[in-house]
Design brief:
about 15% strand; 7-stranded parallel sheet; 3-stranded parallel sheet; about 30% helix; alpha/beta; elongated
Length: about 290
């Protein structure tokens, strides 16, 4: 019958799996229920009657558990707000959940955010150089105007993440999918992108000179008013990608387009036609 009591509690507590304080409540409650069941059996009650009376003795446990879980989550959110203007260099945040976390104007150099869920968090004004964001969820995060030199973004979840005007020297984006990400007014000449998918990404007034995008995928990406000299798209896939000077196409912009290496790239007809009109070398391009 102890197993039956345990199965009953597993069902009640299932929606709150992973919340530490709720797990502790479950353990304490199971012990109390087993003791109550034993008392009822000692009074001569049969198993089914004793089980029903045991369960009835705890009242509306589901409501109690929900209230405890909500309180725990509320406290977690309050803890998150305390990170502003803190010295947190080389801190361990691996695997944490910190939705809308406030990490503004903090020293976070070398910190580990591997696997963390940082949805909606802001790091404005912070030093986050050499930090690890591998496999972290950075959806709707504000990482603009901060130091991110040598930071790692291996398999990071990057949706509507804003990196504009940040220091990304030596930062590594490996096997990441960037969706509706902003990389505006940023020096990317020493940033590393490997095996990435760029979907709806905006590169505006940024310096991309010499970047290697070989073998990577670009869908609905906009390169606007950016320095594009000597970029390599060898073996890359480009669909609905635009290259905009911001003004009428100048000789300087034409010269930059001519330096881009598209050898072995695949692109849709519209992207191909636009680049052809800009006199790009497309002799080794495959049209999709």
């Amino acid at each position: 019958m102890n197993e039956k009591l345990n199965m009953y509690l597993n069902g009640v507590f299932a929606p709150y799996d992973g919340i530490k304080i709720v797990a502790e409540l479950k353990s304490d409650l199971l012990s109390d229920l087993q003791e109550r069941f034993s008392e009822l059996k000692a009074e001569g009650k049969d198993d089914e009657t004793a089980f029903k009376m045991t369960i009835d003795s705890i009242g509306d446990i589901e409501q109690t558990v929900q209230e405890v879980a909500n309180l725990s989550r509320s406290l977690e959110r309050q803890v998150v707000t305390s990170f502003r203007a803190s010295n947190l260099s080389k801190s361990d945040f691996a695997g944490v959940t910190a939705h809308k976390g406030d990490f503004k104007v903090s020293a976070l150099r070398g910190s580990d955010f591997t696997g963390a869920d940082l949805t909606g968090s802001s790091f404005a004004g912070s030093d986050v150089g050499e930090a690890k964001f591998d496999s972290a969820n950075l959806t709707d995060c504000n990482l603009s105007g901060i130091e991110l030199a040598n930071a790692s973004f291996h398999k990071s979840i990057l949706v509507r993440t804003n990196f504009s005007s940040s220091g990304l020297t030596g930062a590594k984006f490996i096997s990441a999918r960037l969706t509706d990400v902003k990389l505006c007014t940023t020096d990317l000449t020493k940033t590393i992108f490997e095996s990435c998918i760029f979907d709806g990404v905006e590169f505006k007034t940024s310096d991309l000179r010499g970047l290697c995008f070989d073998g990577q995928t670009f869908i609905g990406v906009k390169f606007e008013k950016s320095a594009l000299n000597d970029i390599s798209f060898r073996g890359a896939t480009l669909k609905n990608v635009s290259f905009l000077s911001g003004f009428s196409l100048s000789k300087k912009f034409y010269r930059a387009i001519k330096t881009i290496n598209f050898d072995g790239a695949m692109m849709d007809k519209l992207t191909f036609a636009a680049l052809k009109g800009m006199e790009a070398d497309l002799t080794k391009v495959t049209v999709l």
